[in-house]
Amino acid sequence: MKNCQECGRNDIDYYCKPCNSVHFRNNFIHWTSGDSNLDKLIQNSQLNATSSWKLIEWIEYSNLENIELIAHGGFGSVYKAIWKDGPLKEVEQAWDLNKSEWKRKNKMEVAVKKFQNAINVSSDFLNEVNFNLKMNDEVNCNDIVQIYGVTCDPQNGEYAIVTEFKNGGDLRKIIKKNYSNLTWKIIIEILRRISVGLDSL
């Protein structure tokens, strides 16, 4: 256990919930998603988080750059982008006491998942965000894609989920590309990782 450099608590790992929740709360007046239910979901995640990967943020679309279409399907489209600020650093003191701001992983490559007809925040969209957040909270597995937050494209008003970017595409593309090199050992490992993810649902 470490001592919080801000309040002096000595029962924390590296993330001080009392201090960090205050910093998040003080920033609530500076942003809104445009939907009160989504705002509440994001805010509750920040107030209740016990680590930086157990919360999500409202990410301004202007904070994303080099947006590139990766895939398009029946449910929506997936883009690759650079999140200029990036998520909070997983360090002993995430809040910079000298600068009064979060320490962040700048220029982070992320995936932006847009859903068809997500101009309004529907219950289905909220459930999708909540489900991904639950995976962040309950699963400690590198094979689970981490959600960072939510954004909205101002050009068309479409809401989107911002997640960790996994290079290589989906499983179908990976298998097709590497079919000739797949051994039973690799196939079994792929199936094992899928089962770990499914077991966490």
UniProtKB/TrEMBL annotation:
<feature type="domain" description="Protein kinase">
    <location>
        <begin position="64"/>
        <end position="201"/>
    </location>
</feature>
<keyword id="KW-0808">Transferase</keyword>
<dbReference type="InterPro" id="IPR000719">
    <property type="entry name" value="Prot_kinase_dom"/>
</dbReference>
<protein>
    <submittedName>
        <fullName>Kinase-like protein</fullName>
    </submittedName>
</protein>
<dbReference type="InterPro" id="IPR001245">
    <property type="entry name" value="Ser-Thr/Tyr_kinase_cat_dom"/>
</dbReference>
<dbReference type="GO" id="GO:0005524">
    <property type="term" value="F:ATP binding"/>
</dbReference>
<dbReference type="Pfam" id="PF07714">
    <property type="entry name" value="PK_Tyr_Ser-Thr"/>
</dbReference>
<keyword id="KW-0418">Kinase</keyword>
<dbReference type="InterPro" id="IPR011009">
    <property type="entry name" value="Kinase-like_dom_sf"/>
</dbReference>
<dbReference type="InterPro" id="IPR051681">
    <property type="entry name" value="Ser/Thr_Kinases-Pseudokinases"/>
</dbReference>
<dbReference type="GO" id="GO:0004674">
    <property type="term" value="F:protein serine/threonine kinase activity"/>
</dbReference>
